[in-house]
Structure formats: structure tokens, C-alpha cells
Amino acid sequence: MGSVLLEATYAMTFLTGLSLILLKLSINVTAPRQWTLQQTVSDAYLTYEKAWAQRLPFSDLLDTDSPWPEFPQKTETQVELGKLPGGSPIFGTVIRTRIPDANNFPADGGSGTVETNPSGMRVYNFQSLLTYSVGERQYAKSRTVVRSQ
After folding, report:
1. How many CB atoms lie within 10 A of CB 100?
2. How far apart are CA 33 and CA 123, in angstroms?
3. Distance (Å, rounded) from C-alpha 130 to C-alpha 84?
């Protein structure tokens, strides 16, 4: 009877050790997935930013209360990028600004002339910079939309 109990104890100890090793391996497999998920969510948010800059009327983009103020001014907005499995939110900061093209007329922020810009085109770069953190690391991603009129 004593040897059966001893064998059962050995078997339970072995199975417990094996289950801990398998648990550690499964955690190691899921950790990179969380990082990949956060990268995908941040890319999706920047796709939204890009689409927003592309669809807003040009007059709204150049207005005084534009989401993209003229450089060197900028707007900073805290945003929720999405949620991780389990409902934990992912937060980031979006910094927006617009930069006029150097060939714009002086009234439009450039130094162009009728000779260099005969059609009077107004061209702007609308930049969105997203900063966020994953664990201890900080990340930054950006998108730029070029619009002209």
C-alpha cells in the first residue's frame, strides 16, 4: 500500500511539473500575439486618421478650428485605439498639424510665384502622429495625407 501511495505521489509531482511547463509555453506563445494585436489596432486607427483627412472638405481643413492647425501649431488628443481581449483599453495620443507646400503663394504659407506656380495650386501635408505604449516601450507611428486645390 505504501509503494502505491509513493508511486501516486511521484506521478502527481511529475504531472504538476509538466503542467507548469506547458502553462509557461502557452503564455510564451500568446505574448507576441498581444503585441501584434496592439500593432494592428494602432495601424487601423491611423487608417481612420488618413481617411478623415482625405474626406473632410478642403475649406474645413484650412479653417481656424481645423483638426490640423498650421505648423508650428498642433493639436494633441487622447484617443482610445481599441480594446484587448478581456476588455482592457489601449490608449494613445494623436498629434495633428498641417504643413503648407513651399511652392504655395505667400498668402497660403509658401513662397511661390506666378512663374513657379502658374495654376495657383494650394498644396498641404496633413500629418497625424500617434504615440502609444506597449508594456514598457513607447511607439510612434505617423501618416501624412497630401491634399491640393
Report:
1. 20
2. 40
3. 18
pTM, 2 dp: 0.71
For 107-130, how does the pLDDT look when each residue is reduced to its tens digit (9 = 90+)?
Answer: 787 777 888 888 888 889 999 999
**What is the rounded CA–CA span in Å between residue 85 and residue 41?**
12
Work out the angle at residue 43's Cα, subtended by the Cα atoms of residues 89 and 60, and round it to the nearest 5 degrees.
95
- Phi, psi angle pair for 124, to nearest 5°: -135, 145
H helices within 56-118, ranges in order? Answer: 58-62
Over residues 125-143, the pLDDT tens digits come to 999 999 988 767 788 999 9
**Amino acid type, 114:** V
Taking the C-alpha atoms of residue 2 and residue 7, their distance in angstroms, rounded to an integer, is 9
Cell (9 digits) for 67: 483638426
